[in-house]
Amino acid sequence: MADTTVKTSEKSVLWDWLTTVDHKKLAVLYLLAGALFFVKAGIMALFMRIQLMFPENTFVTGQTFNELITMHGTIMLFLAATPLIFAFMNFVVPLQIGARDVAFPFVNALGFWIFFFGGLLLSLSWFFGGGPDAGWTNYVPLSSREYGHLGIDFYVLGLQVSGIGTLVSGINFIVTIVNMRAPGMTMMRLPLFCWTTLVTSILIVFAFTPLAAGLALIMLDRVFGGQFFITELGGNVVLWQHIFWIFGHPEVYILVLPAFGIISEVIPAFSRKRLFGYTAMVFATLVIAFLGFMVWVHHMFTVGVGPIANSVFAIATMAIAVPTGIKIFNWLFTMWGGKITFNTAMLCASSFVPTFVLGGVTGVMLAMAPVDHLYHDTYFVVAHFHYIIIGGIILGLFAGLFYWYPKMFGHHLNEKLGMLTFWLMYIGFHMTFFIQHILGLIGMPRRVYTYLEGQGMATMNMVSTIGTFIMGAAVIVLVINHVYSAYKSEKVTVRNPWGARTLEWSTQTPVPEYNFAQTPQVRSLDPVFYEKVHGDGNMKPAEPLDDIHMPNGSIYPFTIALGLFIMGFGIIMFNMDNPIIPPLAVTIIGGVVVFGSMFLHSIKEDHGYNIPVERVKEELDKEVG
Amino acid sequence: MSTRKGIMRFFPFALLTLLLAGCGEEGLTALDPMGPQAQWLFDNMMLSLYVMALVIIVVFTLFFIAVIKFRKKPGDEEIPEQVEGSKTLELTWTVIPILLLVILAVPTVTGTFMLADTTPSGPEGSGDSGEEELDEDEIEEDGVTIEVTGHQYWWQFDYEEGFTAGQEVYIPAEEKVEFELHAEDVIHSFWVPALGGKVDNVPGITNNLWLEADEPGVYQGKCAELCGPSHALMDFKLIALDRDDYDAWVEEMSQDPEEFEPAEDDETMANQGREVFEQEGCIGCHAIGGQGSEQGPTLTNFGDRETLAGYLDPTDENLDEWIRYPQEVKQDNNMPGFPDMEDEDMEALIEYLQGLSVQD
């Protein structure tokens, strides 16, 4: 039977955050961790651009530059964009489907901590002779034990660990969205952000598993004398590229689909119109995800897989433009005929549309396999994917941040500073990356630490670097905004400050730990808007007011993740010269921590706790008062 | 000429083309194509750019009309009409993109097979191969195939005539030349932007590529796949010569090793240099005229090189620094340094190396 004692602030704040299984608190943790890694990788980008400011500059060496590009790419994709997206998925999805938490709160916490410790493990490389240096794609043989140094092991094990975190979180979201929807919340009433979260989670399950397998093979090669990718021993180096891109291409959609989802929430909210062509949007998402798995060879057109494979994958790649185009036009027609309010969130969301189109059209150009022999591995590609990632994912994240911030933290971000961030970011971004298209075409390969005088590249590189500084300024303003708003912004007490349409706006601000005092009854797509027009403005409850059963916090997610971190580090130690402690011992200690924590968690009875109905009522009354 | 006219038809874009062509360095930039393959890539890039410009114009127009016309006016709290969607519109923006993609898909497929056919043309079959009827045997006899091996961080070129060249690859102009791509250590990618696309040099795999230069000249080549700290410096030159000059060059390069040694009788600087070359062990990695090991770049025609270490001016001072402190010139390369070499020896060695020429 459930333990009925109410646990409030008996424990310290730190302990509370270490043990929390509340999806809203985990969202904040994801946001913080993601922001830290984002700033770190952003600073690396600044260093790279400073090095490329002048021809034959000597700010950093070729070796350091290679470490910077590798860490910049790896951190931005795995440790910045992914957790930032997870922050919103965690916070928003249970609220949007009318649930009290995700399906497995414990697993949710586990996912966060494993991701975080994986990121730490990767970052530790700087203290052990330098970061990985074979690019975020980690191509063999450059990353093999013959040519790659210790940093590569941190890449392999760090990503292996953090990948497990991402994988379990993905599984959790699938189960949550399939099982935890409030009464009446049918699949075709699901907000588009939930749809994209669901599809992304499915992609995670199918894409992170091949990555895990590939990383395991590289680990065997590097640490335990395997020979999967060693040509002289009968291995095949192209095999790694296939495995990597079978993961790597869906990874792009793993990141961009939730951004599409955010845009599909923000644009209707501030256009005061329902999403145009909802059904088409859902199916477009599914088609993109499906096709996303059969285009990986377009990253390998020049590797020599033959003209037939190249043609087939080229056509498949072009096909993705069709569902993406459907999305673009549906967003445009959502705004069309609406009454648009332009605040920071809407500025980011609406400007996403033309920017993403610019990234999309270069994508179609790249899909033309023969012409790709010209673009491949040049700055043209660098420009293309930054248009997708910054112009798409980051703008989407910024829109989501300004949109959901009042719900998450109980106050708005400052609008003036927000606008400043947007314009600095937008101008800086186009300045940095538009010109890189041309740099690629005039013969600048990507991943070069320098270029020579007299190659006609100096001016454009200078412009690009100045753009990067402007983007840096935008991020600084954003950080200032958070601090400023925390002290100066008025508290938001209303449930729906934006007049938005979906279920997360129907609960109190700040959101109580149980989310909804009563599980709502959903009668339509955009339920909050529907009740405003067709009902009395409040959601109909689907259950009587009663005690609410909640899960207890647990420290085991933290200790399991810590154990995996130790295990990973132990395996890396096999490749260190003269480790002080035997690597095997460290690995075993890590294993004991992992399996010990799992064992203790399994045998300890934990029935959660009940929040008595009186307290729920009290909090409801407080809000009215 | 026909392409010029084709471009002129899209007058607004002709300006764009000119603008693009103005960027970059002749002999390097892909925006100023100097061979049939590069021209084909450029034309099809422009084709895709036109099609995409159409998409961009439509989207941007709709976007700007929407954000300007449908702003909320202050005080207007009326709820706009809640439109669910439109089947006609959805069909429109599904079908039209498909049609546009078909336009691009056709050259994509034909182009892929065009690039994959790497059979060298030989001296008679320049330009539009296939139109002229060629005797199969003649192709095999005269077509030029060159083996390209990528090393950290230099290029090795093996010719069918049995000799090897380093860093600079000579080809006959106005001929489709085939390259067989290999890699010795890690993956590299062979790219001459002004002449065509790149293909990867992958260890354990042989890839093929063809290139053709319209005119004799020096074209800049680059490694396009991250291969280590000095990846950025792994440049090379592709030098196209008239067929006669090319044949002469091949003949010079194919001479017996003795022909490359300085005359034994006189006590010239070059002769001393040759001795230093042998005593210091240079010959253990660098062959000259096929004599010596081929672990490092062959130096047979070192005096003709446009660059030193792939990117420096081939001056005596640079050569001195390169031999003494190779790691500082090109990080992580495999050449050992000779910081303590006597000035006298160095001078002689430089004299000898700079004199290694097969051209008049």
In the CATH hierarchy, what is the class of the largest domain in chain B?
A: Mainly Beta
Assembly state of the chains shown: heterodimer
**What's the order of the H and E elements of chain B?**
HHHHHEEEEEEEEEEHHHHH
Shape of chain B: elongated
Q: Using CB atoms under 8 Å apart, which protein chain pair has the greatest interface?
A: A-B, 90 and 92 residues
Helix content of chain B: 25-40%
Average pLDDT over all residues of chain B: 88
Pick out the low-confidence regions of chain A. 1-6
At the fourth level of CATH, the homologous superfamily of chain A is Cytochrome c oxidase-like, subunit I domain
Strand order of the largest sheet of chain A: 1-2
Give the helices and strands of chain A as they follow along the chain. Answer: HHHHHHHHHHHHHHEHEEHHEH
| Helix content bin of chain A | 55-70%
Task: Characterize this entry briefly.
The complex is a heterodimer of chains A (625) and B (360). With 625 residues, chain A is mainly α. Chain A is 65% helix and 2% strand.
Topology, please?
The complex is a heterodimer of chains A (625) and B (360).
Chain A: H1 13-19, H2 23-51, H3 62-96, H4 105-123, H5 151-179, H6 192-223, H7 237-271, H8 278-292, H9 307-335, H10 344-367, H11 369-375, H12 379-409, H13 415-441, H14 458-488, E1 520-521, H15 527-534, E2 540-541, E3 548-550, H16 556-573, H17 583-603, E4 609-611, H18 613-624
Antiparallel strand pairs in A: 1-2, 3-4
Chain B: H1 2-9, H2 11-21, H3 36-69, H4 87-116, H5 136-142, E1 145-151, E2 154-159, E3 164-166, E4 168-172, E5 177-183, E6 188-191, E7 199-201, E8 207-211, E9 217-223, E10 236-241, H6 243-253, H7 269-279, H8 316-324, H9 326-329, H10 343-354
Parallel strand pairs in B: 1-5, 4-10
Antiparallel strand pairs in B: 1-2, 2-3, 5-8, 6-7, 6-9, 9-10
Helix pairs in contact in B: 3-4, 7-10
